[in-house]
From TrEMBL:
Organism, as annotated: Patagioenas fasciata monilis
Exoribonuclease phosphorolytic domain: residues covered: 31-166, 193-256
GO cellular component: cytoplasmic exosome (RNase complex); nuclear exosome (RNase complex); nucleolus
GO molecular function terms attached to this record: mRNA 3'-UTR AU-rich region binding
InterPro entries: ExoRNase_PH_dom1, ExoRNase_PH_dom2, ExoRNase_PH_dom2_sf, Exosome_comp_Rrp42_subfam, PNPase/RNase_PH_dom_sf, Ribosomal_Su5_D2-typ_SF, Rrp43
Domain of life (superkingdom): Eukaryota
Keyword terms, alphabetized: Acetylation, Cytoplasm, Exosome, Nucleus, RNA-binding, rRNA processing
GO biological-process terms attached to the record: exonucleolytic trimming to generate mature 3'-end of 5.8S rRNA from tricistronic rRNA transcript (SSU-rRNA, 5.8S rRNA, LSU-rRNA); nuclear mRNA surveillance; nuclear polyadenylation-dependent rRNA catabolic process; rRNA catabolic process; TRAMP-dependent tRNA surveillance pathway; U1 snRNA 3'-end processing; U4 snRNA 3'-end processing; U5 snRNA 3'-end processing
Gene: EXOSC8
Taxonomic placement: Eukaryota, Metazoa, Chordata, Craniata, Vertebrata
Protein name: Exosome complex component RRP43
Main location, first listed in the record: cytoplasm
Cellular location(s): Cytoplasm; Nucleus, Nucleolus
Family label: Belongs to the RNase PH family.
Cross-referenced Pfam families: RNase_PH (PF01138), RNase_PH_C (PF03725)
Length: 276
């Protein structure tokens, strides 16, 4: 009977749980799904991480390549993020060029990198005007069950913390670059941005870390990105229900707490990996 009611009236079915301050999966409204991170799982990448947020599973691989810096940014390298939502991760996605949600997620990650200044692009420059690193950050969703933005931002941060770049010099006689694979340096991560997403129900109720089903039923979503100093990096709100100042402040406060949990999790995993 409950299954039939859920199929016919999914929103009403959901509201009955919300009235009791809980959700169909047993979580409280402000409770995140179980979160795990595995670092360095792709041996062919220069840095990688696998993040699970409940059933939502995302992998990020970072590949570093050498290139000439842009003429107007002679002392800066590049960071090129890309989020893929292949048909493999959910029946809602089709093969072919990236859909709207994948494009929006890629843009969100690019904005997080830019707004948080997590990496100074000057750190990626090897020789001004001649040589710089390009970091291709490919984020691929393996299993989609909502809140792709939090999982993608987490996977990106964990993968970048895993990156080791070989030392590169330019041979003055030949003018060619020489790469020393035996001497590797970790990337300098200057800020640790963490995303925290909420779904808005019936224009007023906030629930944290929504599943795909919850996102579909919600009247809006909002994602807050904060850094180590509890500073707000960005607020991502693609339309939907408006939020009062008090509700937004509530989201920011919860995001600051979540930041500490995520940072702790990454630090713990990195500590457990034996240095190579």
């Amino acid at each position: 009977m409950a299954t039939a009611f859920k199929t016919v009236e999914p929103l009403e079915y959901y509201r009955r749980f919300l009235k009791e301050n809980c959700r169909p999966d047993g979580r409280e409204l402000g409770e995140f799904r179980a979160t795990t991170v595995n670092i360095g799982s792709i041996t062919t990448a220069d840095g990688s991480a696998l993040v699970k947020l409940g059933n939502t599973t995302v992998i990020c691989g970072v590949k570093a390549e050498l290139a000439a810096p842009a003429a107007d940014s002679a002392n800066k390298g590049y960071i090129v993020p890309n989020v893929e939502l292949p048909p493999l991760c959910s029946t809602r996605f089709r093969s072919g060029p990236p859909g709207e949600e994948a494009q929006a997620a890629s843009q969100f990650i690019a904005d997080v990198i830019e707004n948080s200044q997590m990496i100074a692009k000057e750190d990626l420059c090897i020789v001004s005007g001649k040589l710089a690193w390009v970091l291709y950050c490919d984020i691929i969703c393996l299993d989609y069950d909502g809140n792709i933005l939090d999982a993608s931002a987490f996977a990106l941060l964990a993968a970048l913390k895993n990156v080791q770049l070989p030392s590169v010099t330019i041979n003055e006689e030949t003018g060619l670059s020489e790469v020393n694979l035996k001497q590797k340096n970790r990337l300098i991560i200057r800020k640790h941005p963490v995303a925290t997403s909420f779904a808005i129900f019936d224009d007023t109720l906030l629930i944290v870390d929504p599943t795909a089903e919850e996102e579909d039923l919600a009247t809006g979503t909002v994602t807050i990105v904060t850094d180590d100093e509890d500073k707000l990096c960005s607020v991502h709100k693609p339309g939907g229900s408006p939020l009062t100042g008090a509700k937004l402040q509530d989201c920011i406060t919860r995001a600051v707490t979540r930041h500490k949990e995520v940072k702790k999790l990454i630090d713990k995993v990195i500590k457990s990996i034996k240095p190579q």
